[in-house]
Amino acid sequence: MTKEAQDIVLVCNPRAGGRWKQLAGILDSAEAQHVRRIVTDSIDDIGPALASLGRRVRLVVVYGGDGTIQQILTDIFRSGDGTWSGPAVGMVGGGTMNLTSRWCGWRDAPEENFIQIVHDAMTDKLATREVPMLKIQQGARVEYGFLFAAGSPIRVLNEYEHGRKSRIAAVVFFARTIVNAFNKNAHLIESSLDQMRGEILLDGVPLPYNDFVLTACSITGSLQIGMQPFVGERGGDTFYSLAYAVSAREIAVLLPFLARAMLPIDPKSLLQPVSQVTHIGLSYFGQGSLPLPLDPRYINHPVKEYELRSAEKVYTIDGEIFESTGEPIKITTGPTLRLAIKA
């Protein structure tokens, strides 16, 4: 083991959504000979293992998805004082959901990402970026992550999580969900696609709506791969937030535009009712050229504080499903990390 091995640690979660073949490629690479390894399927083991290595470590490389990273960092923050004074964190992907690693520029296969990150670190070319996390509190429980969401799509995600997880299964399941959004007699409409009843406060101010199809908070601005629906610029102690007080059917129609942070105009601002197709055309082809107000049901802007009061049974943090206690969920910015980014 070289001197550099004392400075770089590889954390592996073999049970991540990726496959053993990907992890084997990392462990068999030449770069893996220059790092210490922590291989465990128990998140509880990782915090103490990292602490035992001392402050000499300057980079922790994580193989696993957003859920693995969320659990590791939450465990570390819970066992400390809620701040981060540790090494830079490199995310190479390998899980079911890899939004954060992709946001940092690591879009290749996990093995290629790992090789590049270790090479950059050993040649003193590693670029980093300071990024805050979300602090998500419900009652006495505190979690940390980069993305929070609740509402109809999360119920759908929960059903998928309890089914057979595969890419084909995901495509079939979500395609069926979109189709059911237009079928008034579909079973999913009666359960998963109903609006979420609740109260949302942004910076202490309650929204004038109580039925939402989706609400979300994000640090990175991504909701899913290819979906950047958040509007505005996040900075300082703010984070992205959105709350859509519309139906699942309306979301399904507008999804290609909402995914690109394009919000529809207020239909009530028009002189006379128009068809849905005309409404979409006016909203997106005339955006910026027509002096029409946006639909107020689509709340979308950065905030410092977020609170959700709802009986909704589940919510997600970084793709992991959590069961709600029914207590208010309060979100602010949390500790700031140094994330390794692809230059």
Commentary on this structure:
This protein has 2 domains: 3-132, Rossmann fold, CATH 3.40.50.10330; 147-317, Tumour Suppressor Smad4. Helices cover 28% and strands 27% of the residues. The protein has 10 helices and 17 strands. The chain has helices at 20-27, 46-52, 66-79, 99-103, 110-122, 152-161, 167-180, 187-190, 248-258, 276-284, and strands at residues 8-12, 36-39, 59-63, 88-93, 127-138, 141-145, 147-151, 196-202, 205-206, 211-212, 214-218, 240-244, 298-300, 306-310, 314-317, 320-323, 329-341. Strands 5, 6, 8, 9, 10, 14 and 17 form a 7-stranded antiparallel beta sheet that branches. It has a 6-stranded antiparallel beta sheet with strand order 13-12-11-7-15-16. It has a 4-stranded parallel beta sheet with strand order 2-1-3-4, sandwiched between helices. α1 packs parallel to α5 (110-122). The protein starts with 7 loop residues before the first strand and ends with a strand.
